[in-house]
Specification:
The protein is an alpha+beta fold. It has one domain: 2-Layer Sandwich (HIT family, subunit A), CATH 3.30.428.10. It is 29% helix and 18% strand. The structure holds adenosine monophosphate and zinc ion.
Length: 140
């Protein structure tokens, strides 16, 4: 997957733009978010350009996924946070601003005021069975 000349994360991956890199290998890079929700907020990106998680090859996603526990432990050690969120936005409707797939690791503290609305819903009678069936067909 070639780099996108207009993509800010491609520019970071290639070294054209500076970033506060904490770890990288041939496939991915982890660096500090430039406008952190809290100190130590990390972004993890594949070095190649993919728009969303759905486009990311399993192999690349696997490599990034394997690194997340280590990065999470380092984040807790470095920041002393009480926990962290793993956040991954796909598409503008989901809050994705940078069109190059990325994973946020966001340190959390009790009473930090961060959060989001979690309006838990409920399936209408029979609807859950339809949804399960549609998923099983899609994944067959
Ligand atoms: P999202 O809303 O999921 O697309 O998040 C994009 C994130 O990228 C935001 O948290 C930005 O602060 C961050 N960001 C944008 N440009 C840079 C940059 N040059 N270096 C580091 N982080 C950046
Ligand atoms: Zn890119």
């Amino acid at each position: 997957m070639p780099a996108d000349a207009d993509c800010v994360f491609c520019k970071i991956a290639s070294g054209q733009l500076p970033a506060s890199i904490v770890r990288q290998n041939q496939t991915w890079m982890a660096f500090l978010d430039i406008t952190p929700l809290s100190e130590g907020h990390l972004l993890v990106i594949p070095k190649d350009h993919y728009l969303t998680l759905s486009e990311l090859p399993d192999e690349v996603c696997g490599q990034i996924g394997s690194a997340l526990p280590t990065l999470g432990r380092a984040l807790i050690q470095v920041t002393g946070a009480d926990g962290f969120n793993l956040l991954q936005n796909n598409g503008p409707v989901a809050g994705q601003v940078v069109p190059h797939v990325h994973f946020h690791l966001i340190p959390r503290r009790h009473d930090d005021g961060l959060g989001y609305r979690w309006n838990a819903g409920k399936y209408a009678p029979g609807r859950e069975a339809d949804v399960i069936s549609a998923f099983r067909n899609a994944l067959a």
